[in-house]
């Protein structure tokens, strides 16, 4: 029984570790916009130039829409997150503050939760996060993009092409975020 408990604890630690821990690559990103390998934590430009995926997501009213419809030909910063992801929850208030600033791309938080949309909206309301509730219950966006770490934030240009992505949590009001957002200009 003890071995079974130990094995279950190890599996649980591995599953949550990808969402909660920073790797050495993330500390490099804090030294000044260092690139991470594709799929790892930190800044990644290996997917630059790829078109935003054309998949259906739900808007705040539960109606189907798409990233391109939301962007409307303007730059779009898409944050993939989930209510069960501690780093995602830590990061959301900084994204909310970034969205309120002028001169930045439109910011959307795209929930990867399978819960009913009102549950996700209530989660954001409870934390006083003013970002509109978008949801990808099928995780079609993260699947199309090959995202393996939450949170992951992707910047698309006005042409709908990826500029960069940042895997892992980041203070979007801090100096590092300002550096990588400046790369889009």
Task: Report the CATH C-level class.
Answer: Alpha Beta
What is the number of E strands?
8
Helix content: 25-40%
| Overall spatial form | globular
The neighbouring-strand order within the major sheet is 1-8-7-4-5-6
User: How many domains?
Assistant: 1
CATH superfamily: Glutaredoxin
Q: State Rg.
A: 16 Å
Q: Report the major sheet.
A: 6 strands, mixed
Query: Distance N terminus to C terminus?
Result: 58 Å
The structure class reads alpha/beta
For this structure, the CATH topology is: Glutaredoxin
Low-confidence stretches: 1-18, 20-38
Strand content: 15-25%
**What is the annotated CATH architecture?**
3-Layer(aba) Sandwich
Characterization of the model:
It is a single chain. With 185 residues, the protein is an alpha/beta fold. A 6-stranded mixed beta sheet has the order 1-8-7-4-5-6. Strands 2-3 form a two-stranded antiparallel ribbon. It is built from 7 helices and 8 strands, in the order H-H-E-E-E-H-E-H-E-H-E-H-E-E-H. It has a single domain (22-182), classed as Glutaredoxin, CATH 3.40.30. The chain is globular. It starts with a helix and ends with a helix. The longest helix is centred in the first third of the chain and has 19 residues, at 2-20. Helices cover 37% and strands 18% of the residues.
């Amino acid at each position: 029984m003890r071995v079974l408990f130990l094995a279950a604890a190890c599996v649980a630690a591995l599953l949550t570790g990808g969402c909660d821990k920073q790797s050495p690559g993330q500390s490099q990103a804090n030294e000044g916009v260092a690139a991470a390998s594709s799929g790892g934590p930190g800044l990644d430009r290996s997917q630059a130039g790829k078109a935003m995926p054309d998949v259906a997501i739900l808007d705040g009213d539960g109606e189907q829409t798409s990233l391109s419809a939301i962007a409307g030909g303007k730059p779009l910063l898409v944050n993939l997150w989930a209510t069960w992801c501690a780093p995602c929850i830590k990061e959301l208030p900084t994204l909310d503050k970034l969205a309120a600033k002028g001169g930045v791309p439109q910011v959307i938080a795209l929930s990867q939760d399978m819960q009913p949309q009102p549950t996700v909206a209530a989660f954001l309301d409870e934390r006083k996060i003013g970002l509109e509730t978008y949801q990808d219950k099928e995780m079609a966006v993260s699947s199309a993009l090959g995202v393996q770490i939450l949170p992951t934030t992707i910047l698309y240009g006005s042409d709908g092409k990826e500029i960069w992505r940042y895997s892992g949590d980041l203070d979007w009001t801090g100096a590092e975020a300002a550096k990588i957002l400046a790369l889009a200009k």
